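Folds vary. Our protein:
___
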Amino acid sequence: MRRVQRISFAAVLAGALGAPARVPAPIPREVLPMTPAIARLPIEGDFPSLAGATAWLNSPPLTPEGLRGKVVLIDIWTHTCINWLRTLPYVRAWAAKYEAQGLVVIGVHSPEFPFEKDLENIRRSARAMRVGYPIAVDSDMAVWRAFNNEYWPALYLVDAKGKIRYHQFGEGEYERTEEVIRQLLAEAGARGAANGSGLTPVDARGSEVAADWRDLKSAENYVGYERTENFASPGGAARGGRRVYAAPAALKLNQWALVGDWTVEGGSVALNEAPGRIAYRFHARDLHLVMGPPARGAAVRFRVLIDGKPPGAAHGVDVDADGNGTAGDPRLYQLIRQAGPIADHEFEIQFLDPGVEAFAFTFG
Protein backbone atom coordinates (compact mmCIF):
# COMPACT_ATOMS: atom_id res chain seq x y z
CA MET A 1 0.00 0.00 0.00
CA ARG A 2 1.29 3.44 -0.92
CA ARG A 3 2.35 5.51 2.05
CA VAL A 4 0.56 8.77 2.83
CA GLN A 5 2.60 10.63 5.41
CA ARG A 6 4.56 13.69 6.29
CA ILE A 7 8.31 13.47 5.93
CA SER A 8 9.47 11.51 8.96
CA PHE A 9 11.29 13.23 11.80
CA ALA A 10 14.34 11.06 11.12
CA ALA A 11 14.37 11.93 7.44
CA VAL A 12 14.02 15.66 8.08
CA LEU A 13 16.65 15.62 10.78
CA ALA A 14 19.03 13.69 8.55
CA GLY A 15 18.53 16.19 5.76
CA ALA A 16 19.08 19.13 8.08
CA LEU A 17 22.31 17.59 9.38
CA GLY A 18 23.65 16.84 5.92
CA ALA A 19 22.82 13.13 5.65
CA PRO A 20 20.62 11.88 2.82
CA ALA A 21 16.92 11.70 3.66
CA ARG A 22 15.42 8.26 3.12
CA VAL A 23 12.69 9.12 0.66
CA PRO A 24 11.91 7.51 -2.71
CA ALA A 25 13.14 9.29 -5.82
CA PRO A 26 11.39 8.95 -9.20
CA ILE A 27 13.33 7.02 -11.83
CA PRO A 28 14.24 9.37 -14.71
CA ARG A 29 12.84 8.26 -18.05
CA GLU A 30 15.35 10.27 -20.03
CA VAL A 31 18.16 12.68 -19.31
CA LEU A 32 18.82 15.93 -21.11
CA PRO A 33 22.28 16.40 -22.60
CA MET A 34 24.69 18.65 -20.80
CA THR A 35 24.86 22.27 -21.92
CA PRO A 36 27.02 25.09 -20.60
CA ALA A 37 23.91 26.91 -19.35
CA ILE A 38 22.28 24.20 -17.25
CA ALA A 39 23.27 21.27 -15.10
CA ARG A 40 22.21 17.75 -15.91
CA LEU A 41 18.54 17.50 -14.92
CA PRO A 42 16.46 14.36 -15.48
CA ILE A 43 12.98 14.29 -16.93
CA GLU A 44 10.91 12.64 -14.22
CA GLY A 45 7.56 12.61 -16.02
CA ASP A 46 4.88 14.77 -17.58
CA PHE A 47 3.02 17.57 -15.81
CA PRO A 48 -0.15 15.73 -14.69
CA SER A 49 -3.68 17.10 -14.79
CA LEU A 50 -4.90 19.59 -12.19
CA ALA A 51 -8.53 18.88 -13.08
CA GLY A 52 -9.10 17.03 -9.80
CA ALA A 53 -8.98 20.27 -7.81
CA THR A 54 -12.29 20.92 -6.07
CA ALA A 55 -11.79 24.71 -6.07
CA TRP A 56 -9.20 27.38 -6.81
CA LEU A 57 -8.12 30.33 -4.66
CA ASN A 58 -6.25 33.44 -5.83
CA SER A 59 -6.69 32.37 -9.47
CA PRO A 60 -9.09 30.89 -12.02
CA PRO A 61 -8.45 27.19 -12.71
CA LEU A 62 -5.07 26.52 -14.34
CA THR A 63 -4.11 23.69 -16.67
CA PRO A 64 -0.81 22.17 -17.81
CA GLU A 65 -1.68 23.14 -21.39
CA GLY A 66 -2.38 26.73 -20.43
CA LEU A 67 0.92 26.94 -18.53
CA ARG A 68 3.06 25.72 -21.41
CA GLY A 69 5.96 28.12 -21.88
CA LYS A 70 6.11 28.87 -18.15
CA VAL A 71 8.28 27.27 -15.48
CA VAL A 72 5.91 25.93 -12.80
CA LEU A 73 6.65 25.21 -9.17
CA ILE A 74 4.08 22.86 -7.62
CA ASP A 75 4.03 23.02 -3.81
CA ILE A 76 1.95 20.26 -2.18
CA TRP A 77 1.00 21.32 1.32
CA THR A 78 -1.54 21.18 4.12
CA HIS A 79 -1.91 24.12 6.44
CA THR A 80 -1.17 22.41 9.78
CA CYS A 81 2.05 20.70 8.65
CA ILE A 82 4.99 22.20 10.54
CA ASN A 83 7.47 20.89 7.95
CA TRP A 84 5.59 22.74 5.20
CA LEU A 85 5.27 25.89 7.30
CA ARG A 86 9.05 26.07 7.57
CA THR A 87 9.41 25.82 3.77
CA LEU A 88 6.79 28.49 3.08
CA PRO A 89 9.06 31.57 3.44
CA TYR A 90 11.26 30.25 0.61
CA VAL A 91 8.36 29.42 -1.71
CA ARG A 92 6.81 32.81 -1.02
CA ALA A 93 10.13 34.56 -1.79
CA TRP A 94 10.61 32.63 -5.05
CA ALA A 95 7.06 33.40 -6.18
CA ALA A 96 7.71 37.12 -5.73
CA LYS A 97 11.24 37.25 -7.14
CA TYR A 98 10.82 35.15 -10.28
CA GLU A 99 7.25 35.89 -11.37
CA ALA A 100 8.38 38.52 -13.87
CA GLN A 101 10.78 36.01 -15.44
CA GLY A 102 8.07 33.44 -16.02
CA LEU A 103 7.82 31.36 -12.84
CA VAL A 104 4.31 30.31 -11.79
CA VAL A 105 3.93 28.93 -8.27
CA ILE A 106 0.88 26.76 -7.56
CA GLY A 107 0.10 25.57 -4.07
CA VAL A 108 -1.79 22.25 -4.05
CA HIS A 109 -3.59 22.01 -0.71
CA SER A 110 -4.04 18.28 0.00
CA PRO A 111 -5.57 17.79 3.47
CA GLU A 112 -4.45 15.47 6.25
CA PHE A 113 -7.12 16.15 8.89
CA PRO A 114 -10.89 16.36 8.15
CA PHE A 115 -11.14 20.06 9.02
CA GLU A 116 -8.47 20.81 6.40
CA LYS A 117 -11.01 20.00 3.70
CA ASP A 118 -13.12 23.00 4.69
CA LEU A 119 -12.73 25.73 2.06
CA GLU A 120 -13.14 28.57 4.54
CA ASN A 121 -10.43 27.10 6.78
CA ILE A 122 -8.09 26.92 3.77
CA ARG A 123 -8.97 30.46 2.70
CA ARG A 124 -8.42 31.83 6.21
CA SER A 125 -5.11 29.99 6.61
CA ALA A 126 -3.82 31.13 3.22
CA ARG A 127 -4.61 34.73 4.07
CA ALA A 128 -2.98 34.51 7.52
CA MET A 129 0.12 32.85 6.03
CA ARG A 130 0.44 35.37 3.19
CA VAL A 131 -0.02 32.78 0.46
CA GLY A 132 -0.91 35.00 -2.49
CA TYR A 133 -0.08 32.66 -5.39
CA PRO A 134 -2.69 30.33 -6.97
CA ILE A 135 -3.98 27.50 -4.78
CA ALA A 136 -5.53 24.32 -6.16
CA VAL A 137 -7.82 23.02 -3.41
CA ASP A 138 -7.27 19.26 -3.50
CA SER A 139 -9.79 18.08 -0.90
CA ASP A 140 -10.38 14.77 -2.71
CA MET A 141 -6.60 14.15 -3.00
CA ALA A 142 -6.98 13.77 -6.78
CA VAL A 143 -4.03 16.03 -7.67
CA TRP A 144 -1.95 14.31 -4.98
CA ARG A 145 -2.66 10.98 -6.70
CA ALA A 146 -1.97 12.43 -10.15
CA PHE A 147 1.56 13.30 -8.99
CA ASN A 148 1.84 9.89 -7.27
CA ASN A 149 2.87 11.90 -4.22
CA GLU A 150 3.52 10.48 -0.76
CA TYR A 151 4.66 13.38 1.39
CA TRP A 152 3.89 16.76 2.90
CA PRO A 153 5.59 18.97 1.86
CA ALA A 154 6.60 18.14 -1.70
CA LEU A 155 7.97 20.45 -4.41
CA TYR A 156 7.93 19.62 -8.13
CA LEU A 157 9.51 21.84 -10.80
CA VAL A 158 8.04 21.67 -14.30
CA ASP A 159 9.89 23.12 -17.29
CA ALA A 160 8.43 25.23 -20.08
CA LYS A 161 7.75 22.10 -22.16
CA GLY A 162 5.59 20.53 -19.46
CA LYS A 163 8.17 18.06 -18.11
CA ILE A 164 8.84 17.46 -14.42
CA ARG A 165 12.56 18.07 -13.97
CA TYR A 166 13.12 18.18 -10.21
CA HIS A 167 11.50 17.32 -6.89
CA GLN A 168 12.22 17.97 -3.23
CA PHE A 169 10.48 16.16 -0.38
CA GLY A 170 10.53 17.74 3.07
CA GLU A 171 12.55 20.64 4.37
CA GLY A 172 15.97 21.73 3.16
CA GLU A 173 17.87 21.94 -0.14
CA TYR A 174 16.64 25.51 -0.59
CA GLU A 175 19.71 26.80 -2.40
CA ARG A 176 19.70 23.82 -4.78
CA THR A 177 15.98 24.29 -5.49
CA GLU A 178 16.43 27.97 -6.28
CA GLU A 179 19.39 27.11 -8.52
CA VAL A 180 17.14 24.74 -10.50
CA ILE A 181 14.46 27.43 -10.77
CA ARG A 182 17.04 29.75 -12.35
CA GLN A 183 18.28 27.00 -14.64
CA LEU A 184 14.82 26.19 -15.95
CA LEU A 185 13.97 29.85 -16.44
CA ALA A 186 17.20 30.32 -18.40
CA GLU A 187 16.38 27.26 -20.48
CA ALA A 188 12.98 28.83 -21.23
CA GLY A 189 14.67 32.00 -22.46
CA ALA A 190 14.17 34.30 -19.48
CA ARG A 191 16.67 37.15 -19.64
CA GLY A 192 19.15 37.30 -16.80
CA ALA A 193 17.76 34.22 -15.07
CA ALA A 194 21.09 32.39 -15.10
CA ASN A 195 23.02 35.38 -13.73
CA GLY A 196 21.86 35.09 -10.14
CA SER A 197 23.44 33.01 -7.41
CA GLY A 198 22.87 32.16 -3.79
CA LEU A 199 19.67 32.03 -1.80
CA THR A 200 17.06 34.78 -1.81
CA PRO A 201 16.57 36.28 1.70
CA VAL A 202 13.33 35.14 3.34
CA ASP A 203 10.89 36.61 5.84
CA ALA A 204 10.15 33.78 8.30
CA ARG A 205 7.80 34.50 11.19
CA GLY A 206 6.49 32.48 14.12
CA SER A 207 6.17 28.80 13.25
CA GLU A 208 7.91 29.43 9.90
CA VAL A 209 11.32 29.81 11.58
CA ALA A 210 13.64 26.87 10.93
CA ALA A 211 13.84 24.28 13.69
CA ASP A 212 16.72 24.08 16.14
CA TRP A 213 17.71 20.70 14.71
CA ARG A 214 20.79 20.10 16.86
CA ASP A 215 18.85 20.43 20.12
CA LEU A 216 15.65 18.68 19.03
CA LYS A 217 14.93 15.43 20.89
CA SER A 218 11.13 15.29 20.56
CA ALA A 219 9.42 14.02 17.42
CA GLU A 220 6.01 14.83 16.01
CA ASN A 221 3.35 12.80 17.81
CA TYR A 222 -0.30 12.30 16.87
CA VAL A 223 -2.62 11.97 19.88
CA GLY A 224 -5.35 9.73 18.42
CA TYR A 225 -4.96 6.05 19.32
CA GLU A 226 -4.18 4.96 15.74
CA ARG A 227 -0.79 6.70 15.59
CA THR A 228 0.19 7.96 19.01
CA GLU A 229 3.28 6.94 20.94
CA ASN A 230 4.23 7.05 24.62
CA PHE A 231 0.75 7.62 26.08
CA ALA A 232 1.28 7.37 29.83
CA SER A 233 -2.10 7.88 31.57
CA PRO A 234 -2.67 4.87 33.86
CA GLY A 235 -4.87 2.22 32.24
CA GLY A 236 -4.10 3.36 28.68
CA ALA A 237 -6.63 4.78 26.24
CA ALA A 238 -10.28 3.74 26.07
CA ARG A 239 -10.50 3.58 22.27
CA GLY A 240 -13.48 5.58 21.10
CA GLY A 241 -14.97 5.64 24.59
CA ARG A 242 -15.46 8.35 27.14
CA ARG A 243 -13.28 8.10 30.23
CA VAL A 244 -11.81 10.14 33.07
CA TYR A 245 -8.00 10.12 32.80
CA ALA A 246 -5.21 10.98 35.23
CA ALA A 247 -1.50 11.71 34.86
CA PRO A 248 1.17 9.35 36.22
CA ALA A 249 3.36 10.42 39.14
CA ALA A 250 6.05 11.48 36.65
CA LEU A 251 6.49 11.62 32.89
CA LYS A 252 9.62 10.41 31.13
CA LEU A 253 10.98 12.30 28.11
CA ASN A 254 8.45 12.24 25.23
CA GLN A 255 5.69 10.69 27.30
CA TRP A 256 2.31 12.43 27.44
CA ALA A 257 -0.92 12.09 29.43
CA LEU A 258 -4.51 13.24 29.59
CA VAL A 259 -6.20 14.55 32.74
CA GLY A 260 -9.97 14.87 32.95
CA ASP A 261 -12.98 13.62 30.96
CA TRP A 262 -11.81 12.85 27.40
CA THR A 263 -12.78 10.71 24.42
CA VAL A 264 -9.83 9.22 22.51
CA GLU A 265 -10.68 8.66 18.84
CA GLY A 266 -8.52 7.18 16.08
CA GLY A 267 -7.16 10.53 14.93
CA SER A 268 -7.77 12.92 17.82
CA VAL A 269 -8.79 13.44 21.44
CA ALA A 270 -11.82 15.52 22.50
CA LEU A 271 -12.54 17.09 25.88
CA ASN A 272 -16.05 16.29 27.15
CA GLU A 273 -16.14 18.43 30.29
CA ALA A 274 -13.98 21.32 31.44
CA PRO A 275 -11.50 21.62 32.93
CA GLY A 276 -9.19 19.17 31.25
CA ARG A 277 -5.45 18.97 30.71
CA ILE A 278 -2.78 17.49 28.47
CA ALA A 279 0.75 17.07 29.87
CA TYR A 280 3.85 16.37 27.75
CA ARG A 281 7.53 16.04 28.66
CA PHE A 282 9.60 17.33 25.76
CA HIS A 283 13.03 18.55 24.68
CA ALA A 284 12.87 21.21 21.95
CA ARG A 285 12.98 24.97 21.45
CA ASP A 286 9.40 25.07 20.13
CA LEU A 287 6.22 23.18 20.96
CA HIS A 288 3.09 23.32 18.79
CA LEU A 289 -0.31 21.67 19.04
CA VAL A 290 -2.79 21.15 16.20
CA MET A 291 -6.19 21.74 17.77
CA GLY A 292 -9.51 23.51 17.35
CA PRO A 293 -12.91 24.28 18.85
CA PRO A 294 -15.92 21.94 18.54
CA ALA A 295 -17.64 24.02 15.84
CA ARG A 296 -17.05 27.01 13.58
CA GLY A 297 -17.55 30.22 15.51
CA ALA A 298 -16.84 28.60 18.88
CA ALA A 299 -13.79 29.33 21.02
CA VAL A 300 -11.96 27.41 23.73
CA ARG A 301 -9.93 29.23 26.35
CA PHE A 302 -6.71 27.61 27.53
CA ARG A 303 -3.68 28.24 29.69
CA VAL A 304 -0.14 26.93 29.16
CA LEU A 305 2.39 26.11 31.88
CA ILE A 306 5.99 24.96 31.62
CA ASP A 307 7.40 23.15 34.63
CA GLY A 308 4.30 24.25 36.54
CA LYS A 309 4.79 27.98 35.88
CA PRO A 310 3.59 30.50 33.27
CA PRO A 311 5.96 30.49 30.27
CA GLY A 312 7.00 34.13 30.53
CA ALA A 313 9.54 34.90 27.80
CA ALA A 314 9.24 31.30 26.54
CA HIS A 315 5.66 31.79 25.34
CA GLY A 316 4.80 31.04 21.71
CA VAL A 317 3.09 33.42 19.34
CA ASP A 318 -0.37 32.07 20.22
CA VAL A 319 -0.17 32.66 23.99
CA ASP A 320 0.84 35.56 26.21
CA ALA A 321 3.54 35.59 28.87
CA ASP A 322 1.01 34.34 31.45
CA GLY A 323 0.25 31.40 29.17
CA ASN A 324 -3.27 32.50 28.24
CA GLY A 325 -4.70 31.80 24.79
CA THR A 326 -7.85 30.99 22.84
CA ALA A 327 -8.38 28.29 20.22
CA GLY A 328 -10.76 29.93 17.76
CA ASP A 329 -9.98 28.02 14.57
CA PRO A 330 -8.71 24.49 13.88
CA ARG A 331 -5.02 25.00 13.09
CA LEU A 332 -1.48 24.66 14.40
CA TYR A 333 -0.84 26.76 17.52
CA GLN A 334 2.66 27.71 18.64
CA LEU A 335 2.57 27.45 22.43
CA ILE A 336 6.25 27.45 23.47
CA ARG A 337 9.31 29.12 21.95
CA GLN A 338 12.35 29.13 24.20
CA ALA A 339 15.60 31.06 24.05
CA GLY A 340 18.96 29.98 25.37
CA PRO A 341 20.00 26.48 26.42
CA ILE A 342 17.33 23.82 25.81
CA ALA A 343 16.60 21.13 28.41
CA ASP A 344 13.85 18.62 29.25
CA HIS A 345 10.67 20.39 30.38
CA GLU A 346 7.16 19.42 31.35
CA PHE A 347 4.53 21.19 29.29
CA GLU A 348 0.91 21.43 30.36
CA ILE A 349 -2.10 22.91 28.63
CA GLN A 350 -5.25 23.46 30.70
CA PHE A 351 -8.52 23.84 28.80
CA LEU A 352 -11.10 26.04 30.51
CA ASP A 353 -13.95 25.23 28.11
CA PRO A 354 -15.20 21.84 26.85
CA GLY A 355 -15.21 20.48 23.31
CA VAL A 356 -11.66 21.17 22.18
CA GLU A 357 -10.29 18.58 19.76
CA ALA A 358 -6.52 17.99 19.62
CA PHE A 359 -4.73 16.15 16.80
CA ALA A 360 -0.93 16.31 16.98
CA PHE A 361 2.07 17.78 18.79
CA THR A 362 4.99 19.05 16.73
CA PHE A 363 8.34 20.47 17.82
CA GLY A 364 11.10 22.66 16.42
Notes: The longest strand covers residues 256-264.
